[in-house]
Amino acid sequence: MNRYTYACPLRWADADANGHINNAVFLRYLEEARTRMFRQVLATDEDGRRRNAFVVARSVVDYRAPLNYRDEPVDVHVWVTKGAAATFELAYEIRDDDRLYVEATTAIVAYDLNTGRPRRLSEDERAFLTRYSTS
Question: Fewer Cβ within 10 Å of end Cβ, the chain: N or C?
Answer without folding.
Answer: C
